[in-house]
User: Fold this.
Amino acid sequence: MRAAWDKALACDPVSAYGGVVALNRSVDMATAEAMGRLFIEVVIAPDADDEAIAILGRRAALRLLVTGGVPDPAAPGESFRSVAGGILVQERDRLDIGQDALRTVTRRAATATEIADLLFADKVVKHVKSNAIVFARGGATVGIGAGQMNRVDPVRVAAMRAAEIGRAAGLSQSPTIGAVLASDAFFPFADGVEAAIEAGVTAIVQPGGSIRDNDAIAAADAAGVAMVFTGMRHFRH
Assistant:
């Protein structure tokens, strides 16, 4: 758990300030000590060790919420959004993309290591506000771009923030170099793929389905980047 916390925090320690931490495992003492060094308003988890409760309880402004369990992410359900004069109801995005769903569309296929990170990134990107982009490496997010008006800007934002955080951490290069990228929807133009390549990615996962898919594929092929399609877009507004 402490290792997962360290990886998550390293992605964006600036934005983590004053945030909410959600865990799918019981909070242990080591993780609680690490979280206690940062200003956090809420920690929500299925359970917590007595030592962790004591440590987090020292922070007067922090609320620890224990749920007693974790909802089944594959369970059916509906999501709701308010609109003028009513509400929009749609099925919850609960499908989990597996390796069998990945379709290689480039000359180079993704390696086993890249596939593991691609599946992880695709799982994360569906929880990010559209337009959403996630850079991942080694089972951790290293850059996140969200809520932009087009597909290329979240790539640039995520890469820029990752580079800034990498420099602040004393890294010799941006953490996006050698990473993979997930997009919650297709790339309407090749520019988003080109921005990802410029940031140093080696593989990309996206739904596919654009009338310009061939342009995106050609850009990836020209750079030796692997690209896989899932056929499933996420779009979380």
Q: What stands out?
A: The domain at 102-229 is CATH 3.40.140.20 (Cytidine Deaminase; domain 2). The first helix runs from residue 2 to 11.
